[in-house]
């Protein structure tokens, strides 16, 4: 059995929206107060405060007259918020994430309900302290016989309400394929495959850049705290939501097609966090969303019985000739077509890299060999014939 989340949009009634906004606000308040207590406890007294201590603090906060409104919402999202804070600190101490940040109202927020705080009956979801079912737009049905174990309600900065239902499902693996593919990630072409195919980068951010820039200028001129500023903020958030929706839809279609057509998929283990430090390419790299593409390939490969292989990020895939194995000394980014000085083979930079990635990935998959050669530079010092991109 595999846990899978089904996300839907819903349009709450006025009463439901008031209760949900109050729930999100209380969850945010408890999270921020607990984060403040844990931070002060360490810096002032060198005391480590964990989930149990913050849970006790929550009990005392509910008894305070000025925080009596915490009792008006379900206690489950408040406790879940403390558990999420504990997980955030665990990720921080393990080096997987930065120090936890305070939650802000303008970012929307989310509230998680476990089985004791919601009811799923006849295809409807009833949340705690809410008498009417949520008016969900069921774009697809839940698998037959499944009951959600967790329900998460979220509000986006643009004002959209979403609900995510976590269920246990059994996913059938896809039939095995005899085809393998190597993928080279890029900016002009989002991916180049070892089959010689290229997928053009849709550049979803740059298509909306002019309109977004105009709206952001208008937002900067509005008086802070005014209603006009809130309207302008929502317009900016709406453009960002359109960018995210278009990018996510494109990546899901692309990764699903790759999973269906190939048995083994090989990619490079890129250090995207380091690559975006280049201020000239940071915007384009972030817009390409390589990390999300690889993440989708990872879990979809696990679901459908495929194999995803990651090779060393230092493997010279672009500088290595896929025909004879010769490694040239330098390969600037502006060089898109080049000729091997050893075998005179003509190469497209991206396709050649994908062929090398596939060969290295199959070596790792079959025998666990290292893909990083001992000699990363060309033995010969002869000049390389290069053809700049026109």
- Give the ordered list of helices and strands: EHHHEEEEEEEEEHHHEHHHEEEHE
Strand content: 15-25%
* Strand arrangement across the biggest beta sheet: 2-6-7-1-5
Task: Output the number of helix runs.
Answer: 10
CA radius of gyration is 26 Å
Mean pLDDT: 90
Query: Biggest sheet, open or closed, and with what strands and sense?
Result: 5 strands, antiparallel
* Shape field: globular
Number of domains: 2
Tally of strands: 15
Please report the distance between the alpha carbons of the first and last residues. 52 Å
Helicity level: 40-55%
Derived structural class: alpha+beta
Your description of this structure?
The chain contains ten helices and 15 strands. It has 390 residues and is α+β, with helices and mostly antiparallel strands. It has two domains: 2-169, no CATH class; 181-390, no CATH class. The strands form four sheets. It has a five-stranded antiparallel beta sheet. The protein has a five-stranded mixed beta sheet with strand order 10-9-8-11-12. The chain has a three-stranded antiparallel beta sheet with strand order 14-13-15. A hairpin with a 5-residue loop joins strand 6 (150-155) and strand 7. Mean pLDDT is 90; it is low at 373-390.
């Amino acid at each position: 059995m595999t846990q899978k989340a089904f996300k839907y949009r819903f349009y709450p009634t006025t009463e439901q929206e008031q209760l949900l906004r109050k729930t999100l606000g209380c969850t945010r308040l408890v999270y921020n107060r607990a984060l403040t207590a844990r931070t002060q406890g360490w810096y002032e007294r060198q005391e480590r405060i964990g989930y149990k201590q913050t849970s006790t603090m929550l009990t005392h906060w509910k008894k305070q007259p000025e925080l009596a409104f915490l009792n008006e919402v379900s206690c489950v999202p408040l406790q879940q918020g403390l558990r999420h804070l504990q997980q955030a600190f665990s990720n921080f101490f393990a080096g997987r994430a930065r120090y936890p940040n305070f939650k802000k109202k303008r970012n929307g927020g989310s509230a998680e309900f476990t089985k004791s705080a919601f009811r799923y009956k006849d295809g409807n979801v009833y949340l705690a302290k809410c008498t009417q079912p949520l008016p969900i737009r069921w774009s697809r049905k839940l698998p037959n016989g499944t009951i959600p174990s967790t329900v998460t309600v979220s509000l986006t900065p643009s004002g959209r309400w979403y609900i995510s239902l976590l269920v246990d499902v059994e996913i059938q693996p896809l039939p095995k394929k005899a085809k393998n593919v190597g993928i080279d990630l890029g900016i002009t072409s989002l991916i180049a495959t070892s089959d010689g195919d290229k997928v053009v980068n849709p550049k979803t951010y740059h298509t909306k850049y002019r309109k977004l820039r105009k709206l952001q200028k208008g937002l900067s001129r509005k008086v802070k705290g005014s209603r006009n500023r809130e309207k302008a903020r929502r317009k900016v958030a709406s453009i960002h939501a359109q960018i995210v929706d278009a990018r996510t839809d494109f990546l899901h279609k692309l990764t699903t097609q790759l999973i269906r057509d190939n048995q083994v998929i090989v990619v490079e283990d890129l250090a995207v966090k380091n690559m975006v430090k280049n201020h000239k390419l940071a915007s384009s790299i972030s817009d390409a969303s390589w990390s999300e593409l690889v993440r989708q390939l990872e879990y979809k490969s696990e679901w459908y019985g495929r194999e995803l292989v990651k090779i060393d990020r230092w493997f010279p895939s672009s500088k290595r000739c896929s025909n004879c194995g010769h490694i040239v000394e330098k390969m600037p980014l502006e060089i898109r077509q080049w000729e091997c000085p050893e075998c005179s083979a003509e190469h497209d930079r991206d396709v050649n890299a994908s062929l090398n990635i596939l060969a290295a990935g199959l070596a790792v998959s079959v025998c666990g060999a290292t893909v990083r050669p001992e000699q990363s530079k060309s033995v010969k010092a002869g000049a390389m014939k290069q053809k700049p991109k026109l």
